[in-house]
């Protein structure tokens, strides 16, 4: 994997302002960040995809900051301060809106799981208390009824 | 001529009104007659619209705005629906067409139910036609007529895009018919096996074209936009994904209703929601409330009308649901470790995934309301949608391995645990040896798990239950579709984590190396087509003994004053070497061209996987057409569960 990365990193030093970092790990980090930052001149593209000139400058800035040892959060923060939160395709997690955006999907999944567990707990209790005979388990034929010979 | 079409559309509106009236009152014969008449009238209207595109009648405003005499004939025809007004006309035609199909094919032995279905569908058609005729009329004249038109958006001049909108509309509008079936079932108060048996083919009739339409759009974006990717989490893509997710959930829950009479209320709710999300999608796309690369026909008035329609139809349906659903009966009792339990998990996850996509799509709107400008893009969906769907994919083979009512876990689950453990170990080994990202490893494992599940199910039915030649079509359908998901997941994971991309500037004779392929620029020459001219680059790609010639183009369409990118793709067998031509620059007196060169491993599996899913859907639809005399022995057959004959009795 790493050897392949070298293959595509090394020979492209002639690319105008898109000089990849020589350290493949840092370049990989920069690539991830460039996928997460929105081009300010285009409709809906990350700077990694955009052909606009400013996107090239922004890519260069990402690489420079990665090379200077800045953390991902600091780089995202720098771009958000400069161009507004709008440029972050991966919205920040802080604040009420962040909680809603990042928490709701997983919260809903959790609620669904708890809801299921509760319903089945209740059912199981009713079944044992009310003496309702459960459906006979038929481990033998697992077919869906369509082709049940019966 | 176009006035005749205009009149025919108004007459179709009248026919749909009458259809609604008689249908809701339970008169099937009258409602069917009106549905057929409306189909005839609307076909005339749409046919005449296409005709004015074919003969380039520039006195019709729509033709002037979207066509050009130099355009190839096929794209003149496709141009009829390659714009807002024309696509709404197509929408109306499909809506009326589904009513006519229902009038022809629905044979449940319940006249009133069928009539009411046609009545509700009539009401949907009325809404669409009113919107067409009063808010986006394609039949208007232009005076004086110009000598030449403005041409079709050149991005749309492509075979994939010519059939992409009709496919999507079959899907969206198909869900409106499923909605009509659900509403009629609720009015009757009977959501049972007969209802599910009658409805399931129509769910598939919507789901299959919607899947294909999404895949076509994705494939088009891949080779036409020149960005190297196939899914961008663009609002318009999300708008089509949400009804698809709900439709997939519906497809599974309706099986429980059909086989066991269970999940009735949930199935109906999904049918209502799938339709609401189809309109919501139209609203998001057409109103321009979201920025999107696809944005077309942006008009706030149209947006508010669509929103009003969504409120009216969706609100009425949900009210009907709230009123009638509590009276619906469930099926026989079941335990959690059973096929019902596993399908319930499947449905809840589909639902949560839909909410996630919705949230990510409209969140920028919500933020704007509080005065903040925010973006939600690919990284968000990769971190939320992907793990949520992973739960679903993990459960999928377990659904197949379980039986109705209750499953003795030890039988199937132990085997599953062994295979799952083996796959898990393999994934850990890959993560350790190949420095794969964690997500990619999990994704690969899930893909293998799904393929195992699909293959295992076929093997079990073919050998353990020795019925290889009599396997019902729906078993094949299910296995094909699930195999398709497995291949899709592997393709998506490998492409996403293993692709190489490089933006380079090359002078003639220079080369670049991408994923072991050495790509050399030979020359850039001009080229010409019927209504465009282009810069065409010739690239020679070499790797070992194999070589390929790639000719990416940058086209200019003078009529539309717009450039497009024509990518060149070399299929290596394991992936695509993908090139797109960028801009020309002058540097120190030399001419250099920018290129994007990508290597996309296994990307064909993505599209092939979706194709298999759709093919599975077709098989499953035919599996519904069984000889009517079969009954399940293990429970008493209610009187209402009379056998259905789909299609004319022989």
Element order, helices and strands of chain B?
Answer: HHHHHHHHHHHHHHHHEEEEEEEEEEH
Q: What would you call the shape of chain B?
A: flat
Distance between the termini of chain A: 55 Å
Query: Taking all residues together, what is the mean pLDDT of chain B?
Result: 85
What is the CATH C-level name of the domain at 1-152 in chain B? Mainly Alpha
Portion of residues in helices of chain B? 55-70%
Number of helices of chain B: 17
**Biggest sheet of chain B, open or closed, and with what strands and sense?**
6 strands, antiparallel
CATH superfamily of the largest domain in chain A: Cytochrome C biogenesis protein
Question: What's the SSE blueprint?
Answer:
The complex is a heterodimer of chains A (150) and B (650).
Chain A: H1 2-9, H2 24-36, H3 53-67, H4 72-83, H5 95-130
Helix pairs in contact in A: 2-3
Chain B: H1 2-24, H2 28-54, H3 61-66, H4 73-79, H5 84-105, H6 111-135, H7 159-188, H8 193-224, H9 235-260, H10 264-287, H11 300-324, H12 339-369, H13 378-401, H14 409-434, H15 438-464, H16 473-498, E1 500-506, E2 511-514, E3 517-529, E4 532-543, E5 546-550, E6 553-557, E7 562-566, E8 568-571, E9 575-587, E10 590-601, H17 603-623
Antiparallel strand pairs in B: 1-10, 2-3, 3-4, 4-5, 4-6, 6-7, 8-9, 9-10
Helix pairs in contact in B: 1-2, 1-6, 2-4, 2-5, 2-6, 5-6, 5-7, 6-7, 6-11, 7-8, 7-9, 7-10, 7-11, 8-9, 8-17, 9-10, 9-12, 10-11, 12-13, 13-15, 14-15, 15-16, 16-17
Q: How would you summarize what this structure contains?
A:
Chain A is mostly helical. Chain A contains 5 helices and no strands.
């Amino acid at each position: 994997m790493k050897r392949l990365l070298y293959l595509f990193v090394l020979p492209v030093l002639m690319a105008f302002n898109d000089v990849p970092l020589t350290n493949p790990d840092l370049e990989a980090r920069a690539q991830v960040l460039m996928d997460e930052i929105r081009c300010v001149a285009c409709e809906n593209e990350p700077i990694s995809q955009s052909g606009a000139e400013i996107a090239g400058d922004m890519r260069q800035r990402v690489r420079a900051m990665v090379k200077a040892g800045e953390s991902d959060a600091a780089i995202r923060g720098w771009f958000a301060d400069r161009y507004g939160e709008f440029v972050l395709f991966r919205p920040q997690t802080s604040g009420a809106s962040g909680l809603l955006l990042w928490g709701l999907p997983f919260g809903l999944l959790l609620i669904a799981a708890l809801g299921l567990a509760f319903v089945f707990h209740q059912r199981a209790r009713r079944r044992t208390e009310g003496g309702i005979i459960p459906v006979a388990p038929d481990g033998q034929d697992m077919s869906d009824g369509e082709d049940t010979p019966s | 001529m176009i006035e005749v079409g205009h009149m025919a559309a108004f007459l179709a509106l009248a026919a749909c009104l009458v259809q609604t009236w008689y249908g809701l009152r339970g008169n099937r014969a009258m409602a069917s007659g009106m549905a057929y008449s409306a189909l005839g009238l609307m076909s005339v209207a749409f046919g005449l619209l296409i005709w004015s595109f074919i003969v380039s009648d520039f006195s019709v405003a729509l033709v002037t705005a979207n066509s050009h005499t130099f355009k190839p004939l096929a794209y003149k025809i496709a141009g009829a629906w390659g714009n807002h007004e024309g696509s709404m006309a197509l929408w109306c035609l499909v809506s009326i067409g589904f009513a006519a199909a229902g009038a022809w094919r629905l044979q449940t032995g319940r006249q009133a139910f069928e009539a009411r279905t046609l009545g509700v569908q009539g009401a949907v058609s009325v809404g669409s036609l009113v919107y067409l005729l009063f808010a986006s009329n394609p039949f208007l004249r232009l005076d004086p007529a110009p000598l030449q038109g403005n041409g079709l958006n050149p991005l749309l001049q492509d075979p994939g895009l010519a059939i992409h909108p009709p496919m999507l509309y079959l899907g969206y509008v198909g869900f409106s018919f499923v909605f009509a079936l659900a509403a009629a079932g609720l009015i009757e108060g009977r959501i049972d096996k007969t209802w599910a048996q009658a409805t399931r083919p129509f769910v598939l009739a919507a789901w299959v074209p919607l899947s294909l339409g999404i895949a076509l759009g994705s494939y088009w974006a891949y080779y036409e936009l020149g960005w190297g990717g196939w899914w961008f989490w663009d609002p318009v893509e999300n708008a089509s994904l949400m009804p698809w997710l709900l439709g997939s959930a519906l497809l599974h829950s309706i099986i429980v209703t059909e086989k066991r009479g269970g999940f009735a209320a949930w199935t109906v709710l999904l049918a209502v929601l799938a339709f609401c999300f189809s309109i919501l999608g139209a609203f998001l796309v057409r109103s321009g409330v979201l920025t999107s690369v696809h944005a077309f026909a942006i008009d706030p008035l149209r947006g508010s009308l669509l929103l009003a329609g969504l409120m009216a139809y969706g609100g009425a349906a949900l009210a009907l649901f709230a009123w009638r659903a509590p009276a619906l009966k469930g099926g026989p009792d079941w335990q959690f470790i059973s096929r019902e339990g596993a399908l319930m998990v499947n449905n809840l996850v589909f639902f949560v995934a839909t909410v996630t996509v919705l949230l990510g799509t409209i969140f920028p709107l919500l933020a704007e309301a509080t005065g903040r400008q925010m973006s939600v893009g690919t990284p968000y969906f990769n971190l939320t949608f992907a793990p949520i769907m992973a739960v679903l994919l993990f459960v999928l083979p377990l659904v197949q391995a379980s039986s109705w009512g209750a499953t003795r876990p030890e039988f199937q689950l132990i085997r599953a645990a062994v295979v799952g453990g083996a796959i898990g170990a393999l994934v850990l080994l890959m993560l350790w040896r190949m420095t794969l990202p964690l997500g990619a490893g999990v994704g690969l494992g899930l893909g293998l798990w799904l393929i195992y599940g699909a293959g295992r199910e076929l093997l079990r039915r073919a050998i353990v239950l020795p019925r290889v030649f009599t396997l019902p079509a729906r078993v094949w359908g299910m296995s094909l579709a699930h195999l398709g998901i497995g291949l899709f997941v592997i393709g998506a994971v490998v492409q996403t984590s293993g692709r190489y991309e490089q933006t380079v500037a090359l002078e003639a004779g220079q080369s670049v190396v991408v994923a072991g392929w050495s790509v050399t620029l030979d020359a850039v020459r001009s080229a010409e087509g019927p209504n465009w001219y282009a810069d065409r680059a010739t690239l020679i790609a070499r790797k070992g003994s194999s070589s390929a010639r790639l000719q990416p183009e940058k086209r200019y369409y003078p009529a539309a004053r717009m450039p497009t990118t024509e990518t060149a793709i070399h299929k290596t067998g394991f992936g695509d070497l993908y090139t797109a031509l960028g801009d020309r620059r002058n540097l120190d007196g030399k001419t250099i061209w920018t290129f994007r060169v990508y290597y996309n491993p296994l990307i064909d599996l993505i599209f092939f996987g979706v194709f298999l899913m759709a093919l599975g859907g077709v098989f499953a639809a035919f599996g519904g057409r069984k000889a009517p005399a079969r009954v399940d022995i293990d429970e008493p057959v209610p009187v209402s569960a009379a056998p259905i004959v789909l299609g004319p009795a022989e």
